[in-house]
């Protein structure tokens, strides 16, 4: 698990975050999270246009073992969802860092300051 992408940031709730242009935040779940969950069978994505607060529960992933809430890493508006991932949740298991789930137009990029870099996230998951 030492291959965490360095260009991403990580939430303690195991979402990865990639800052795109125009304050757009792309969100997925980490390799660690998908391994803990097992084979994903269903993803309930947030509705387009939904306003979310940083730390707010906004989506759910279900696996053969359990269901897990996903949380918004930043405050803003949901502007895109990955329907392909919802239709084929196994994409997340196959390639978690290339399979994004939703995008948020961030209200304030300082929310990103609360996230972890790859090294800090690695330490978290090794505990």
Description:
Helix content is 20%, strand content 34%. With 127 residues, the protein is of the alpha+beta class. It has a single domain, classed as Beta Barrel (OB fold (Dihydrolipoamide Acetyltransferase, E2P)), CATH 2.40.50. The strands form 2 sheets. A 6-stranded antiparallel beta sheet has the order 1-2-3-9-8-5. A 3-stranded antiparallel beta sheet has the order 4-6-7. The longest helix has 9 residues. The radius of gyration is 13 Å and the shape is globular. It starts with 8 loop residues before the first strand and ends with a helix.
Roughly how much helix do the residues carry, as a percent range? 10-25%
Shape: globular
- Give the biggest beta sheet: 6 strands, antiparallel
What is the helix tally? Answer: 4
CATH topology: OB fold (Dihydrolipoamide Acetyltransferase, E2P)
- Unreliable stretches covering 5 or more consecutive residues: none
Instruction: Provide the CATH top-level class.
Output: Mainly Beta
Order of helices and strands: EEEHEEEEEHHEH
Please outline what is shown here.
With 127 residues, this protein is an alpha+beta fold. The chain has four helices and nine strands, in the order E-E-E-H-E-E-E-E-E-H-H-E-H.
Attribute tags:
single chain, 127 residues, alpha+beta, OB fold (Dihydrolipoamide Acetyltransferase, E2P), 6-stranded antiparallel beta sheet, 3-stranded antiparallel beta sheet, 4 helices, globular
Write the layout of secondary structure elements.
Blueprint: E1 9-10, E2 15-19, E3 24-29, H1 31-37, E4 40-44, E5 51-52, E6 57-63, E7 67-71, E8 76-81, H2 83-87, H3 90-94, E9 102-106, H4 118-126
Antiparallel strand pairs: 1-2, 2-3, 3-9, 4-6, 5-8, 6-7, 8-9
């Amino acid at each position: 698990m030492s291959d965490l992408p360095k260009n991403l940031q990580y939430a303690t709730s195991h979402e990865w975050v990639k800052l795109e242009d125009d304050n757009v935040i792309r969100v997925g779940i980490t390799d660690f999270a998908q391994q803990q969950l097992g084979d994903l069978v269903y993803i309930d994505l947030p509705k387009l246009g939904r306003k979310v607060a940083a730390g707010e529960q906004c989506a759910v992933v279900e696996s053969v073992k359990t269901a897990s809430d996903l949380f918004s890493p930043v405050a803003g508006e949901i502007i895109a969802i990955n329907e392909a991932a919802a239709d084929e949740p196994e994409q997340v298991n196959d390639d978690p860092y290339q399979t994004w789930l939703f995008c948020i137009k961030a209200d304030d990029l300082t929310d990103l300051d609360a996230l972890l870099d790859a090294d800090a996230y690695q330490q978290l998951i090794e505990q």
